[in-house]
């Protein structure tokens, strides 16, 4: 149970990035020791920025962030950074244990290997310490990020989308860990079922007001409360707008009559102004992306993809296995299997045309949604990325209209891909894919980082795609919305 001791307190905190994008406006909230809190908000609202303010990696423009004396904080980020992707597992943990400001001057860390083994066991990982991180699956990297935070033995654990890339057993293991975790934890996640198992309260970052609203209770109860309040706000707006309309009609009528009725009209207009000031702006939090289509390549037919062998990872060794997969136009393959077996590696090789035992029909255009978004140029702006995807066929007006459908406004279009949130990168990836005519669509965890409000729309677009598709997803509710013709379970090869 949480104690009465407050260990994090935001006092009228305002913050904006250098591009004048306001993230927080006089935000107030507190976190008690031992509590388990969910941080909610739309993609790009600034949830990860709040984490940076807590850790001190970002400073408020005004107000104060008060942290309890000697409080240790560790963050399990959404993704492995580009600076760390080529490290070994041991080097990753050494880096995690060093103070960034003193990293080069700190003495060697002795007896680190038993500590590494201990946190790897906690996160259900079994890997040689000399393993290069880039060779790990997305799920293994997600567990490693948690282990990197846990080895610091923090008083406050910050988890940013910890279930991304995790398979069913991985999520179950993480859930059990958090239920039994005795220290303070703040979690950013779009996985409602996962959150509801341990959440004791919610910090709700409103993308419109830029304030943080604090609620107590389990996740589902809080979400219901927020929905009820939003509905009350809409009903109030409807009543006010009806009253305002009626009063305007009366004011115009009295104004035309002249005499003392003009004074009455003037007083009524002042009242109208007061009422208009009471109208609540409809929260943008409820905004979702617009329905979209993924155009398919029409000039191809017949067999699009054949696979007669795949490479899996078993006991840290690569093993070739025979398969018999043939996909014609409009057919879909669901690729399943536990974390670390080689699903992402297979998709990467399929997309490059270098997979062993692979045949892709000549002339087929491949669209590849990669879970780490490395198909995007992080140094390019969103506008440049979409312009390249569109080619010479479209106009600037049509590009901007297309981007707006994915909640990519003029400000975001000017932003470099590398500066976006992970959720925004996902929306850019879909916006780019839907500007192309694709014959073979390869999707690797397309719901990662994506706000749950957008997922039904994305599922509909994917399901309506008229080309050939290979899909990897650990989100069962999402997969149920997609027609699948064949399933290739790589896990079955572990049994042989």
Structure description:
- By secondary structure, the chain is α/β, with parallel strands linked by helices.
- It has two domains: 219 residues, 3-Layer(aba) Sandwich (Rossmann fold); 193 residues, P-loop containing nucleotide triphosphate hydrolases (Rossmann fold), CATH 3.40.50.300.
- The protein is 35% helix and 22% strand.
- It has 15 helices and 17 strands.
- The strands form four sheets. Strands 5-6-7-3-8-9 form a six-stranded mixed β-sheet. A five-stranded parallel β-sheet has the order 14-15-16-12-17, sandwiched between helices.
- α14 links the parallel β15 and β16.
- α2 runs parallel beside α4.
- The longest helix has 39 residues.
- It is globular, with a radius of gyration of 26 Å.
- The mean pLDDT is 85.
Helical fraction equals 25-40%
* Overall form: globular
Which class best fits the helix and strand makeup?
alpha/beta
Q: What fold name stands as the CATH topology of the largest domain?
A: Rossmann fold
* Strand residue content: 15-25%
Oligomer: single chain
Largest sheet, strands/sense/barrel: 6 strands, mixed
How many individual domains?
A: 2
Mean pLDDT comes to 85
In the CATH hierarchy, the architecture of the largest domain is 3-Layer(aba) Sandwich
How are the strands of the biggest sheet laid out side by side?
5-6-7-3-8-9
Gyration radius, in Å: 26 Å
Query: Number of helix segments?
Result: 15
CATH class value of the largest domain = Alpha Beta
Q: Provide the CATH superfamily of the largest domain.
A: P-loop containing nucleotide triphosphate hydrolases
Contiguous uncertain segments of 5+ residues: none
Number of strands: 17
* Beginning-to-end CA distance, first to last residue: 46 Å
């Amino acid at each position: 149970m949480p104690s009465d001791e407050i260990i994090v307190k935001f006092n009228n905190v305002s913050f904006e990035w250098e591009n004048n994008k306001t993230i927080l406006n006089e935000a107030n909230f507190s976190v008690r020791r031992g509590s388990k809190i969910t941080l909610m908000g739309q993609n790009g609202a600034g949830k990860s920025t709040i984490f940076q303010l807590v850790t001190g990696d970002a400073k408020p423009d005004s107000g104060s962030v008060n942290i309890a004396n000697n409080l240790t904080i560790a963050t399990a980020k959404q993704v492995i950074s580009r600076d760390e992707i080529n490290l070994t597992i041991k080097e990753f943990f050494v880096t995690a244990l060093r103070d960034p400001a003193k990293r080069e001057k700190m003495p060697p860390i002795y007896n680190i290997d038993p500590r590494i083994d201990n946190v790897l066991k906690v996160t259900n990982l079994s890997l040689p310490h000399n393993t290069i991180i880039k060779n790990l699956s997305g799920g293994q990297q997600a567990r490693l990020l948690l282990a990197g935070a846990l080895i610091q033995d923090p008083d406050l654990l910050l988890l940013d989308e910890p279930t991304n890339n995790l398979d069913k057993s991985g999520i179950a293991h993480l859930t059990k860990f958090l239920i039994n975790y005795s220290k303070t934890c703040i979690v950013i996640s779009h996985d409602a079922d996962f959150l509801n198992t341990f959440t004791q309260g919610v910090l709700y970052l409103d993308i419109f007001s830029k304030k943080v609203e604090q609620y107590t209770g389990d996740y589902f109860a809080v979400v219901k409360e927020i929905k009820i309040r939003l509905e009350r706000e809409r009903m109030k707006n409807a009543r006010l707008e009806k009253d305002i309309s009626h009063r305007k009609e009366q004011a115009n009528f009295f104004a035309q009559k002249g005499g003392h009725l003009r004074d009455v009209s003037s007083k009524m207009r002042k009242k109208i102004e007061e009422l208009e000031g009471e109208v609540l702006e409809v929260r943008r939090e409820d905004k979702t992306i617009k329905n979209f289509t993924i155009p398919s390549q029409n000039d191809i037919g017949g067999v699009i993809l054949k696979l007669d062998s795949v490479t899996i990872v078993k006991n840290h060794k690569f093993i070739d296995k025979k398969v018999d997969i043939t996909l014609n136009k409009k057919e879909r393959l669901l690729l399943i299997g536990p974390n670390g077996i080689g699903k992402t590696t297979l998709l990467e090789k399929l997309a490059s045309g270098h997979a062993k035992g692979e045949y892709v029909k000549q002339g087929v255009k491949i669209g590849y949604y990669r879970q780490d978004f490395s198909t995007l140029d992080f140094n390019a702006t969103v506008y440049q990325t979409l312009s390249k995807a569109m080619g010479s066929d479209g106009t600037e007006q049509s590009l901007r209209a297309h981007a707006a459908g994915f909640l990519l406004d003029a400000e975001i279009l000017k932003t470099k891909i590398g500066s976006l949130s992970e959720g925004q990168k996902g929306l850019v990836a879909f916006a780019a894919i839907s500007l192309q005519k694709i014959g073979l669509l390869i999707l690797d965890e397309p719901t990662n980082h994506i706000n749950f409000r957008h997922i039904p729309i994305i599922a509909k677009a994917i399901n309506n795609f008229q080309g050939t598709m290979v899909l990897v997803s650990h989100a069962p509710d999402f997969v149920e919305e997609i027609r699948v013709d064949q399933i290739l379970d790589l896990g079955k090869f572990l049994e042989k």
